Amino acid sequence: MKFESTPLEGVMVIRPRVFGDERGFFMESWNARTFTEGGLDPEFVQDNHSRSSRGILRGMHYQTEQVQGKLVRVTAGAVYDVVVDLRQSSPSFGQWYGLELRAEEHTMLWMPPGFAHGFYVLTDSADFLYKTTDYYHPESEVSLAWDDPAVGINWPLLDGETPILSAKDAAGLSWNDIPLFD
């Protein structure tokens, strides 16, 4: 696996080795020893899988209790994946990073605890998998507004259309109103 730094402290792009032939492919998506050698040592407790249709935006979510680190990837389709650094002590505090995750490229993204996370579906549908370092805690979940001008995420909206949002995401809080981390 190749571990690549991003402009956000602690966020890594991970490119697994993929072995393929006419029959298909094989890859390791998680190996504790390989991740430790790459400078990451998360303990995962939960795996999640979502399927979404084209134009859906899920995010920008995080939890203030049971704060989660996440390892994410796409297994069908493509998304634009975004993280925002909410750690006030971080040199990248308040900055965002986005990249396209495509199933055929097998690229993964690691974000440590302290980030808001979301994605926008670019293909007819997308299957999105993520491993988390803590359990889902809905009572402390926060949704940062996906379009907050103070954050300024440059979403690649299809045909410039407004994304399809859940009620929770449509009511996302502004940057000035969200709880932050130390």
What is the secondary structure topology, with strand pairs?
Elements: E1 2-5, E2 12-15, E3 18-21, E4 24-27, H1 32-37, E5 46-53, E6 57-63, E7 70-76, E8 78-85, E9 96-102, E10 108-111, E11 115-121, E12 125-132, E13 141-143, H2 167-170
Antiparallel strand pairs: 1-2, 2-10, 3-4, 5-12, 6-11, 6-13, 7-10, 7-12, 8-9, 8-11
Give start-end ranges of low-pLDDT stretches: none
How big a fraction of the residues is strand? Answer: 35-45%
Kindly state the number of beta strands. 13
Q: Which CATH C-level class is it?
A: Mainly Beta
Provide the residue-averaged pLDDT.
96
* CATH topology tier name: Jelly Rolls
**Global structural class:** mainly beta
The largest beta-sheet arranges its strands as: 1-2-10-7-12-5
What multimeric state do the chains show? Answer: single chain
CA gyration radius, whole angstroms: 16 Å
Label the overall shape.
globular
CATH architecture field = Sandwich
Largest sheet: 6 strands, antiparallel
How many structural domains can be distinguished in the coordinates? Answer: 1
Whole-Å distance between the termini?
Answer: 31 Å
SSE sequence, one letter per element = EEEEHEEEEEEEEEH
Keywords:
six-stranded antiparallel sheet; 182 residues; mainly beta; 41% strand
Verbal overview:
- With 182 residues, the protein is mainly beta.
- The chain has one domain: Sandwich (Jelly Rolls).
- The protein contains 2 helices and 13 strands, in the order E-E-E-E-H-E-E-E-E-E-E-E-E-E-H.
- The strands form 3 sheets. Strands 1-2-10-7-12-5 form a 6-stranded antiparallel β-sheet, with no helix packed on it. A 5-stranded antiparallel β-sheet has the order 9-8-11-6-13, with no helix packed on it.
- A hairpin with a 6-residue loop joins strand 1 and strand 2.
- The longest helix has 6 residues.
- The relative contact order is 0.25.
